[in-house]
Specification:
Helix content is about 55%, strand content about 10%. By secondary structure, the protein is of the alpha/beta class.
């Protein structure tokens, strides 16, 4: 009797489509189950390979299915779409996932543990609060501008100027608007306090993690970037080399090559936007320090800055830091500022 070898699962909030085939590709299972019944359905199937799109809740289900002996593989949604036949619906999506799962050239997303998701939850919450803080400052700047009061750019300058604006009785600011601005200033203080608490939590996690302490020695890498990188990458050995990690972060140039002629453009900006932003911001800070240093890495970065421009040098340094992070994690090394690669 044929047994199920591969299962494709199209996840959703309430109803989930399951598609199972044997080793020869024959369909043995094709049904829609409720979310509450999914565990019971998978539990009654002999251990096999299960494929899902890397979407919301996929890492949770991957951990649950692994408890029953199944091998779970997650795939990016854009890699699954080419295998979908006919129109888009849950049944066709599950079949496409099952088909993509059997492709030998398919690339898979590493599963995240509970600890990794906890750290990333702190980062997502912090990013949300930072966005809210920026929105409130811009909102107050727009309101005051309607009454002829301009605030300098920058959150810190807004913090310094807003109390004086509220206390100034000669600026002809209406009382209702003055009350709205005062309320928003209090909200801004609450957001600052909450963001500060999250920064302390992430800094504490960075000090406890041996891997974070290892990459914190790299110029331009702080506690935020270190904890986010460790939690997002997981096992660095899943990447064959440092350039694959840089490409995963979207720090490698786009290619439009044909006929043996290589054409490189801007960076792809694919992958994890949050990690890429942290790396680029850290590299921007490190590049300012390179002008006062005489080591080889600083000299290399300043040469790129003089030959091309400041922004290209920043992105290049961020990509180099990403490759260095891979080397430290995958090869279990300590960071050496004056490291010289051995000749082939």
């Amino acid at each position: 009797m044929a047994t199920i070898a591969h299962i494709g699962i199209d996840l959703a909030k309430y109803v989930i489509q399951v598609h199972g085939i044997d080793a020869n590709g024959k369909v043995l299972l094709k049904k829609m189950v409720k979310r509450s019944e999914l565990i019971k359905t998978i539990m009654n199937i002999e251990p096999c390979v299960i494929g899902m799109e890397a979407c919301g809740g996929a890492h949770y289900w991957a951990r649950r299915f692994s408890e029953f002996g199944h091998e779970v593989k997650l795939m990016a949604a854009q890699f699954v779409a080419p295998y979908r036949k006919n129109q888009k619906n849950d049944a066709n999506d599950a079949e496409a996932i099952c088909e993509a799962l059997t492709r030998p050239s398919m690339r898979f997303v590493p599963k995240k543990s509970v600890d990794q998701q906890v750290v990333l939850s702190l980062h997502r919450t912090r990013a949300l609060l930072v966005g809210q803080r920026t929105a409130i400052v811009n909102h107050m700047r727009g309101l005051l501008l309607e009454f002829g009061i301009a605030i300098s750019r920058g959150i810190q300058k807004a913090r310094n100027q807003l109390p004086g604006i509220l206390e100034d009785g000669d600026n002809e600011l209406p009382d209702i608007v003055r009350e709205l601005i005062a309320h928003n200033v209090q909200h801004l203080k609450l957001l600052d306090a909450r963001i500060g608490d999250l920064d302390k939590q992430l800094d504490h996690l960075a000090k406890q993690s041996e891997l974070s302490q290892r990459i914190l020695k790299i110029e331009g890498i702080g506690p935020l970037c270190a904890t986010a990188m460790i939690a997002s990458i997981g096992d660095a050995k899943l990447f064959n080399n440092g350039r694959q990690l840089a490409a995963w972060l979207g720090l490698t140039p786009k290619q439009y090559s044909s006929g043996g002629k290589t054409r490189l453009g801007r960076i792809t900006k694919g992958g994890n936007r949050y990690l890429r932003t942290l790396l680029i911001q850290g590299a921007k800070s490190a590049l300012f320090q390179c002008a006062r240093k005489k080591d080889q890495k600083s000299h290399w970065a300043m040469q790129i800055r003089e030959r091309r421009n400041h922004n290209i040098a920043v992105v290049t340094l961020a990509a180099k830091n990403a490759r260095t992070i891979w080397a430290l994690l995958a090869k279990n090394r300590e960071y050496q500022h004056d490291y010289q690669p051995m000749a082939a």
